Every structure is written in C-alpha cells, then in structure tokens.
Amino acid sequence: MRYDLAIFDLDGTLADTFPFFMATQNEVARLHGFAAIAPHEVDRMRHLGPREVMRHVGMPRWKLPFVVRSFMRLMREHRDPIPLFDGIGDALAHLEARGVKLAVVTSNSRGNVDRLLGDAHCRRMGHFECGASMFGKKRRLLRVLRAAGVPATKAIYVGDQIPDAEAARAAGIDFGAVAWGYATRASLEAQRPAVVFDTPADLARLAGDAPMKKPAPPERTRAG
Questions:
Q1: Is residue 9 part of a domain?
Q2: Mind listing the pLDDT tens digit for each residue in 148-163?
Q3: Domain match, 35 and 86 both
Q4: 120 and 22, same structural domain?
Q5: Which of 63, 126, 145, 208 is most buried, taking the most CB atoms under 10 A from its CB?
Q6: Mean pLDDT, to the nearest integer, of 183-197?
Q7: In what order do the strands lie in the sheet with 174-178?
C-alpha cells in the first residue's frame, strides 16, 4: 500500500539513541529514585512495554515527565554525535522524492530532533510534534493529520514501541513497526502492525515501491 503521509517516531526509529539511554540511565535513576536496568536485564526488558518496565524499576507514572526531561537535557548536553540508523537518510530522501509527506511525532524535544536529524532531513519534514507524552501521542498524530490534510486511511505512524502502536490505533491510522528499535519484533507483531520493516531500506514500501538496495541490518549496540 502507498501512503500519502508517513509520520515517524524519533528515538529507536530514526535515531539510534538506545546506547545513550543505557549510558545515562544510572544517573537518571539516582536523580529520580528508581532502580536502573542491569545489563543482564536488557533483553528481557525489550520484550516488555514501557508500563511494565516502569513497574519493574519502581518508577511511578507521575515521575515519567520529569524523567523524560532529564534524558532530554542530558541528550542536549551530550557531545558525541548520536547517529541515525544506517539507511535512514536514503529512505527519507526516497520517500520525499516519491511525493510522500513526512512528519515527526516524538517525546523528544525539538532541539534534539533538529540536532539528530540535521538540517537536510528536517527540511524534508512538513510537520513536527515534539515533547509528546509517551502515552499521549494520539492527540499529536491527529494534529499532524489535520495540518497535512491527509485522511487517516492514507497515513501511517512508524515507531518502535508498544505505545506507538496504541497511539496509531487510537488515532485511526496504520502502525508500521521497525525491527531495529527499543522493543523486540515479536512484541510489536503482537500489536498487529500493518507492516513490519526489517531494515531502513524496507521503508520504501511506504511509497508503494519495492525495498531499496539493502544495507546490512542496523547493528544493535545493546548492552547485555
């Protein structure tokens, strides 16, 4: 199926921020009084949704906005570049050239989005909705739909976590799951996505095309 509008999550979907998350989680956990995820727990946590992970580490939901702000601040102050996944830049350029409207809906800040995507890719995005609650993206997705003038039946939200699937479903749009992000492929398949992308080259399918020449699958720089 060809989509007229492809909306993307950022962390774990376009940008490989998981290594940064693992490197800074101990500091954030100490600051906000919850347990950090041990290296040997990482694979198991990737099978769980954020709500289950929060229960595991003892973080009440009311702390989530403060925790997210801490991660965004540390990312803003982070000096080493955080890369996009290999092939993402080519995929975005291809979709733009094929006339697919592009947008971003993310919990991350606009400043971090600009820094991670860079000027060229930011110019490809027609709409940005940044700073969304992890569990409150439905409203942001609907806002992008209205701004883009695209019916829900011709739009898709591409993400890497269970709340992304829930938000897309609540907004009445398709969900596309990426297999290289924070959650496992199996946990996302349980959400019944319209499509699963194994590599960024597969994103060409959003324009109704066959996958582009595939680079190697994104390397997982996971702890544990």
A1: yes
A2: 999 999 999 999 999 9
A3: no
A4: no
A5: 145
A6: 95
A7: 125-129, 101-105, 5-8, 155-159, 174-178, 195-197
